[in-house]
Each structure stands twice: as C-alpha cells, then as structure tokens.
C-alpha cells in the first residue's frame, strides 16, 4: 500500500510491500477495517432513517476509536519493524524513519 501524505502526494518510493511490519497481522487489520466499514454503513442507515442525533454521535465516536486503534496498531508495527530495521542500517536511516513516524503521529493526534 502506498501512503498518502497530508498534501495528497504519494510517497515512499522504493519501499516494497515485502518489508512492511504489519504483514504478520494483515488479516487482523483487514477484519478490523471490514468491521469499521460495516459501522460506516450503519451510520449511513441511521442518518437515512433519521435516528436520534446523540445515538448517531455515539456511533461516530465508536467508529473514530476503532480507526484510531487501527492507526495505533499500524504505528506500533512500523516502529517495531521499519524503524528498528532502519536503526540497524545507519543512524541517518533511523533518524529519517523516526521523523517519518513523528509526522504520522502528529497527523493521528491532530485528527
């Protein structure tokens, strides 16, 4: 999967998918994302059926927490795999991966 930064540009050339840290738990992430997809459909249905706004907001909150959980899981795998591998390569590579991770963390907490 190619990442998209906040400017919408695709990045990370040369990062083949064979090295992504999350691959060991890919099935778990896919299951969680499918559940979130179902939550989104449920929210659409609630709005379509004119459900009580507080009930909708409760489900929005649950969906937001579920997405945050996926993001934190991916971040954990990135730190334990990509950052560790970069640290073995060189200080410069490690610093670049830490900077990249910090930008991702910043995006997660600002959303």
TrEMBL record:
Keyword annotations for this protein, in alphabetical order, are: Copper
Q: Where is this region: Disordered?
A: 1-20
The UniProt entry, under InterPro entries, shows: Metal_Tscrpt_repr, Metal_Tscrpt_repr_sf
The keyword Protease appears for this protein: no
Give the matching Pfam families: Trns_repr_metal
Q: Does the keyword Mitochondrion apply?
A: no
Bias type Basic and acidic residues, positions: 7-16
Recorded superkingdom: Bacteria
The similarity annotation says: Belongs to the CsoR family.
> Which PANTHER family is this protein grouped with?
COPPER-SENSING TRANSCRIPTIONAL REPRESSOR RICR, TRANSCRIPTIONAL REPRESSOR FRMR-RELATED
Q: What is this protein's record name?
A: Metal-sensitive transcriptional regulator
Taxonomic lineage: Bacteria, Bacillati, Actinomycetota, Actinomycetes, Mycobacteriales
